[in-house]
Design goal:
The chain is α+β, with helices and mostly antiparallel strands and about 140 residues long. Helices cover about 15% and strands about 35% of the residues. It starts with a helix and ends in a 17-residue tail after the last strand.
């Protein structure tokens, strides 16, 4: 179906997109943003971040104010390649911590290319919503 609406065809379209993305990251020196998910339990949050090919020695997890920062680099080995689809480079992602997250007691664990960060929660009384009057004019 893609061939009908895109004149390049599926494989050529994919190649064009990949080349454009690669060029954008290399020229601007930008970082890749890893995919992630944040789930919540009663006493903690669990942040899972995909970082395939990275080990603990290639990752840094740190707090900067109210942000949890994950930074790392996947370095390319110099060798003759006949196919190159693996993405290399710097990764960077900053997450704003939820209001009830505690900054003490965070735990990070890396397993099978997934970084899991357990973020403890503090019990806070629920704040009622505050109505703000809307004025005309």
């Amino acid at each position: 179906m893609l061939e009908k609406i895109w004149p390049f065809g599926r494989s050529r379209f994919r190649k064009v997109v990949e080349e454009a993305l690669e060029k954008a990251f290399r020229e601007e020196g930008g970082a890749l943003e890893p995919l992630s998910e944040l789930s919540e339990a009663e006493d903690h949050y669990l942040l899972r971040v995909e970082v395939p090919g990275l080990g603990p020695e290639n990752l840094e997890v740190r707090l900067e104010g109210d942000q949890l920062v994950i930074e790392g680099e996947k370095r390319e080995e110099k060798r003759t390649k006949h196919l190159a689809e693996i993405v290399y480079g710097r990764i960077y992602r900053a997450y704003l911590l939820p209001k009830d997250a505690r900054k003490e007691g965070l735990e990070a664990r890396l397993s099978k290319g997934v970084l899991e960060i357990r973020i403890p929660r503090e019990k806070r009384p629920e704040e009622p919503p505050v109505r703000i009057p809307v004025q005309e004019g």
